[in-house]
Amino acid sequence: MEVLSAGIPILDEALGGGLLEDSNLLIVYDTYSNGWALGFEIVRRRIGMGDFGVILDSVLPITPLRMELMAINFDIDELGRRGDLAVVDIFSSFYGLKYSEDYIYTDPTIDGSTFLPKYNGLYYRVLKERIGDRRPVGIDVTVDGMAFLLGEKNFIRVFQRLMAFKERARISEKRKRPLNIFLLNRSRASDELVSWMSLYSQYVIEFQPTENFGVEKFFVRSSPLPDFEPSVEGYTFRLIRGRVEIEKPEKSG
């Protein structure tokens, strides 16, 4: 399997070298954290390297999602019009919202009982109509939002089936394998959901607050790469004027 750069050298170092193709990266944070921004920064960097971004949105209508992403200067519309990004909008599908932009994909007939086949239908439309021979880099906004829509127990079962579909595609399809980023707000999730998602994620990054306002730390809890060295000190994370800043603290002692 190929190891791909996240596009952020210090993050590649923290992960033990980068991200394996077809791997899952889980980013866990809490209510007031900006940890979600790391996921979108990876998407931005990978798009800059030729990948295609796919946002799976289950928590917000498109307008407030646009507003949230202004904090990191991530422009859905510019990237969509340019042909570098699509939104699979589960939230709007559930609540009957429809948009004129052709890079926003919805299905008003989707519901909890038909989610999996109709979600797959939307995703394969994006593959056919937009992605072509590029590598998809997907970001799930958010796992806890999807669990709320589908019910947590049902979501876990659906996710297991998605992992089976993913494995089948890996065996039978010749296209470039994706990178998958899952955002999870632990303030809205049970310990069981966090545990299941950690099981299915090859990489887990956990954000924690610090005593300094606007400054967080993240810790890489797991990575499958042999060069991965867990950091006791973690990494300092800030979001400043739309820019993600990561620093490696000096080792104590």
From TrEMBL:
Top-level taxon of the source organism: Archaea
InterPro entries: P-loop_NTPase
Protein name: KaiC-like domain-containing protein
Organism name: Thermococcus eurythermalis
